[in-house]
Design a protein that fits this description.
The protein has 303 residues and is of the alpha/beta class. The chain is globular and about 60 Å long. It folds into 2 domains: 182 residues, 3-Layer(aba) Sandwich (D-Maltodextrin-Binding Protein, domain 2); 99 residues, Osmoprotection protein (prox), domain 2 (D-Maltodextrin-Binding Protein, domain 2), CATH 3.40.190.120. About 5% of the residues have low confidence. It starts with a helix and ends with a helix.
């Protein structure tokens, strides 16, 4: 055998051994991250992506869907994890309505964690912030009309039917913890034509531009302080606590138990104020969600 052929054969053997060693390891470390279709969810999904990649995972992303689609994908193992909110798990997926449980962050987390364990889904440690639904008004208008609570709004709507237009997204209109049951609890009605249904991102713009007078919103949205909005107090504790947590397909967690420790720093460091700032960077400064997530993780020393 010539020396050149010998070297070639050695190279082929070594390359084959490298591929054999690396290939299965990489295949075993592949994971699919899901996410819903609004800014905060895109950021949370990218937190997961960056943290997992930093820990040797190959990550596929399947984001931009509604709550029910994300949940079904997780239940069927089509995705391995996504961030879900405790209040959504309790009211939407498990059809529960005990206000004593759903308005208490610890109680509702323990409830959904136990219930979903039976379904093969594992709730990891929840994040600090509570991204509950809210009703918003322009600060000056709320002050002029004497509205600071949802009860105040209900009274004004009943005394002045047709005066105010309300903006909601499609999901909030249909959800069991959405606008229709809220009207029932607070005992008011909105006349036909005074409800405007639109995309989640457009409700803030519509309120800012005075195309609606009241809008639904999310408590951690950076546009609330930026646009001069005020959150109406939920004085009857209608809205559940919505602390997000990574929810993982149990078989995936059994395979990769290190996922628990990978996500734990988020639970320790990501506050409501931090989340508002991150949402604002995407919505107002038009930054890329992955870039925002990566920069924050670097700033906090997590990568």
């Amino acid at each position: 055998m010539s020396f050149k052929r010998f070297i070639t054969n050695v190279f082929v053997i070594v390359l084959g051994l490298m591929l054999f060693a690396a290939g299965p390891a990489e295949a075993e470390k592949r994971i699919t991250v899901g996410g819903k279709n609004f800014t905060e969810q895109y950021i949370l999904a990218n937190f997961a992506k960056v943290l997992l990649e930093e820990n040797g995972f190959n990550v596929d992303m399947q984001t931009g869907v509604g709550s029910s689609v994300a949940r079904q994908a997780l239940e069927h193992g089509q995705i391995d994890l996504y961030f879900e909110y405790t209040g959504t798990g309790y009211t939407v997926f498990h059809k529960q309505s005990d206000s004593e449980i759903m308005s208490n962050p610890e109680k509702v987390y323990k409830w959904v964690k136990k219930a979903d364990k039976e379904a093969g889904l594992v709730w990891l440690e929840p994040l600090q912030f509570n991204n509950t639904y809210t009703l918003l008004m322009r600060k000056d208008d709320a002050k002029d009309l004497g509205i600071s609570t949802i009860s105040d709004l209900a009274q004004y709507m009943n005394e002045n039917p047709g005066k105010l237009t309300i903006g909601v997204n499609a999901e909030f209109w249909e959800r069991p913890d959405g606008f229709k049951p809220l009207m029932k609890l607070y005992d008011f009605q909105v006349p036909y034509g005074k409800i405007r249904r639109m995309d989640s991102g457009l409700v803030y713009q519509a309120l800012r531009d005075e195309n609606v007078d009241v809008s639904m919103g999310f408590a951690t949205d950076g546009r609330i302080p930026a646009f001069g909005f005020v959150i109406l107090e939920d004085d009857k504790n209608y809205f559940p606590s919505y602390n997000p947590a990574p929810v993982v397909y149990e078989e995936t967690l059994d395979k990769y138990p290190e996922i628990r420790d990978i996500f734990k720093p988020l639970a320790e460091k990501l506050t409501t104020e931090e989340m508002q700032k991150l949402n604002a960077e995407v919505d107002l400064e038009h930054k890329n969600e992955e870039k925002v997530a990566r920069q924050w993780l670097k700033k906090k020393g997590l990568i």
